[in-house]
C-alpha cells in the first residue's frame, strides 16, 4: 500500500551552493549531510539533494505547501529563484506557481486552503 509522499530529490551540480540555498528557502539546516546526499526535514517530508546530477525543468512537478503564495514567491525570488510559471488560481481558491531554482530544477508551491494535514500518514 502506498502511504504517500516521503521524499523529493533534486539533482544539483554544486551540492554546497544548493545546500546553502535550500537552507535559506526552507529556513532549516539539513538533518543528513554527506558528500553523496543532503537531506532536509520539511514538515515531516524529505527534500533531498543529489550531487553531480542533471537538473531539469521538464520532470515531475512536486508542490510544497504554503499559506501565502505571493509572499513566498517574493521571498524565494529574492533568494535567487526565477518565476517559471506565474501564480495561477486553479479553482476553489487553490493557487500554484512554478519557480526555477538557481540549479535548474522546478520548485513548485501550492496554497491550498482545502489541504487536510490530518490525512497525512
Automatic annotation (TrEMBL):
What is the protein name given in its UniProt record? VOC family protein
Instruction: Please name the source species.
Output: Duganella vulcania
Record-linked PROSITE patterns? VOC
Gene3D superfamilies the record matches: 2,3-Dihydroxybiphenyl 1,2-Dioxygenase, domain 1 (3.10.180.10)
Boundaries of each VOC domain copy? 4-112
Amino acid at each position: 500500500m502506498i502511504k504517500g509522499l516521503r521524499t523529493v530529490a533534486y539533482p544539483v551540480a554544486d551540492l554546497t551552493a544548493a545546500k546553502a540555498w535550500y537552507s535559506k528557502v526552507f529556513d532549516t539546516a539539513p538533518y543528513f549531510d554527506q558528500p553523496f546526499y543532503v537531506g532536509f526535514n520539511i514538515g515531516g517530508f524529505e527534500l533531498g539533494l543529489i550531487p553531480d546530477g542533471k537538473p531539469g525543468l521538464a520532470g515531475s512537478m512536486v508542490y510544497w505547501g504554503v499559506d501565502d503564495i505571493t509572499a513566498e514567491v517574493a521571498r524565494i525570488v529574492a533568494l535567487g529563484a526565477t518565476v517559471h510559471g506565474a501564480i495561477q488560481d486553479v479553482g476553489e481558491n487553490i493557487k500554484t506557481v512554478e519557480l526555477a531554482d538557481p540549479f535548474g530544477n522546478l520548485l513548485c508551491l501550492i496554497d491550498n486552503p482545502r489541504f487536510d494535514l490530518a490525512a497525512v500518514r
